[in-house]
Amino acid sequence: MLIGSIVPVLPTGAVVGAGAALAMTGQLNLVLVVLLSMAGALVGDLVTFAAGRGGRGPMTRFFERRQSSEKLTSARERFTQRGWVLVVIGRMVPAGRIPVLLAAGALDYPWRRIVPAATGACLLWAVAYALLGVVSGGLFDNPLVATLIATMLILVITMLVGLVARLRERKRERDRVPSS
Asked: Which of 79, 144, 160, 180 has the fewest CB atoms found within 10 Å of its own CB?
């Protein structure tokens, strides 16, 4: 979980779901699956945030080249006003976690706020994916079938959430373009 949370090459949600499915067949402890998943995800999120803080100079220049100063000021204000919401949403939306955490670090979001926000986000994330595993593990007695079903459910839901997010972004972009 920790490796997948730092280097996003593993479908970590599928790992949580598979662990929960195995817990439903008696192979693992569900509470430990959730707590260890949350802990691994939290450490990974805080490492990602620290990378944004540590690379604040280069990252800030990167953002400044691509965004106007008004947009950067607006982003800082959004993090100040409701940064915890952005962190939770970033954790739950596929491919949203890393940009949100790097931006939070680069925009000087304080550690005293990121730690509780990331903790809550990781707990919510672990519980949500474990629930999918519980459903599949409760339906099938065979641990292999339950694990495969949980993994497939999570991958399908992740793809659907990503698709909906992309469609909403395209709609927002179309709405921003003035009519000729």
From this structure: 180
Task: Name the nearest CA neighbour of 1 among 51, 35, 52, 49.
Answer: 35
pLDDT tens for each residue of 46-79 = 999 998 888 666 666 666 666 667 777 777 788 8
The model's pTM is 0.72
Nearest to 88 by CA among 45, 117, 129: 117
The residue extents of the domains of the chain are 2-176
**Phi and psi based region of residue 110 (left: phi greater than 0; alpha: psi -120 to 50; beta: remaining):** beta
20 within 8 A of 30, measured Cβ to Cβ: yes
179 backbone φψ class: left, alpha, beta (φ>0; ψ -120 to 50) = beta
Percent above pLDDT 90 for the chain: 22
Question: CB atoms < 10 A from the CB of 39, how many?
Answer: 17
